[in-house]
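WARN no homologs supplied; continuing
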Amino acid sequence: MSRERTFRMFTDYAKGVMQGLEELCFLDDMAERDKVMVFYATPTMAFAKVVANIQNGEDAGSNISIYLKSIEYNKEQTMNGYGTLHYSTDNSTVIMRAPQIYQLNFQATILCNTETEGDILQAQILMGMPFNHNYYFMIDNQYACCYAQDPENASSVEAGTGNDKFSRRTVTIIVPRAYLEYPIRELKGMVKEFNINYNLIGGSEIKEDNPHNLVYAYR
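OK structure emitted
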């Protein structure tokens, strides 16, 4: 029996959220081949990345960073009746343990050059991921979804190469149902035959003709 030792902590869900942001967010002054840069980082790291691009003489453009701000255990959705499932085939037994179910709260931070750009990108996220029409993506051939809420204007003057000013917006993106899955274990091979040997203890007598019926022979 071997055990899987590689675990992933909701990375596929983060990729799904980033995929949605890349599909939904666009500015009219961008070329067709360009897109809003989306990456996984805390707001501090995202801002440092923008400043580094400006210091290197590059056009920072608009970007959106996300990070997993918090997770909430969905106790009411826990599969209490399904603890461990054993599924047997002709030559193996698969052991599956019920996954834990969480709500993921991602914070998306928009950094752009003007307040108008910030408003446009924030509105695109809210309109593309509303609560009543979630954005859907696929994980291991299963549907997952997310929606956006709690928009906020978090603009402030930051020190860049001089007096650079960046407009900042934030929005919370929620994945209401995410699975933290246990590794699936597989036991290969099966026992085809049992050989049982027994010894009679002094004074015991078999009470019927079938010597292999140990349940009733000595009752």
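The longest helix spans residues 11-24.
OK
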